[in-house]
Amino acid sequence: MSGVQGERVSLDLLKQKMADFAKERNWDQFHSPRNLLLALVGEVGELSEIFQWKGEVPKGLPDWEDEEKIHLGEELSDVLLYLIRLSDMCGIDLDKAVLRKIELNAIKYPVSSSKKQSNTSTIIANINNDTASG
Ligand SMILES: Nc1ccn([C@H]2C[C@H](O)[C@@H](COP(=O)(O)OP(=O)(O)OP(=O)(O)O)O2)c(=O)n1
C-alpha cells in the first residue's frame, strides 16, 4: 500500500511517524498508555458519530458526499494512529501480535463450521421472510 507521497505504508512506518511527531513536540510525556487509550476511545466516539442516526448504510457508502468520506478517513486514521502508538508505548509488537491473532481466529472459527452456520442463517432468514410475507 502506498500513501500520498508514494511512501509504502506499514505499521512500522506509522509507528515511526507517531514517535517523531510526539518527540518533536515534546509530547512523549503525555503519551502514556492510559492517556493514549482514552484518546483512542475518544476517536472511536468521533468515528461512531459519523454513523449515528444514519441507520444501516450500504457497503462502499455510495450515497455519501466526498466530504463525508474524507471526514470518515480522518477519524479512521486517528483510531489507527492512537492504536499503533498505544501498542508501541505498551511494548507490544503489533506486527507479530496481529498475525498471531489472525491465526488464532482461524483456529477458533474453522471454515467448515462457519459455512454450516451461514447456511443455517440463510435458511432462518428465508423462513422469517416467508412468515413475514404471509
Ligand atoms: N496529544 C496528542 C494530540 C494529537 N495527536 C495526534 C494523533 C491523532 O491522529 C490526532 C488527534 O488530534 P485531535 O485531538 O485534534 O483530534 P481531531 O483531529 O479528531 O480533531 P477534532 O477532535 O477537533 O475533530 O493528532 C497526538 O498524537 N497526540
From TrEMBL:
Subcellular localization: Cytoplasm, Cytosol
Record has Iron-sulfur as a keyword: no
List this protein's GO terms for biological process: dCTP catabolic process; DNA protection
Q: Which reaction does it catalyse?
A: dCTP + H2O = dCMP + diphosphate + H(+)
Q: InterPro entries in the record, alphabetically?
A: DCTPP
Q: Name one GO molecular function term.
A: magnesium ion binding
The UniProt entry, under Pfam families, shows:
MazG-like (PF12643)
Task: Provide this UniProt record's keywords sorted from A to Z.
Answer: Cytoplasm, Hydrolase, Magnesium, Metal-binding
- Presence of keyword Cytoplasm: yes
Q: Which domain of life is it from?
A: Eukaryota
Q: Name one GO cellular component term.
A: cytosol
Q: What is its EC number?
A: 3.6.1.12
| Described function | Hydrolyzes deoxynucleoside triphosphates (dNTPs) to the corresponding nucleoside monophosphates. Has a strong preference for dCTP and its analogs including 5-iodo-dCTP and 5-methyl-dCTP for which it may even have a higher efficiency. May protect DNA or RNA against the incorporation of these genotoxic nucleotide analogs through their catabolism.
Its assembly, as annotated, is:
Homotetramer.
Q: PANTHER family under this entry? A: DCTP PYROPHOSPHATASE 1, PTHR14552
Q: What is this protein called?
A: dCTP pyrophosphatase 1
* Source species of the chain: Cephalotus follicularis (Albany pitcher plant)
Taxonomic placement: Eukaryota, Viridiplantae, Streptophyta, Embryophyta, Tracheophyta
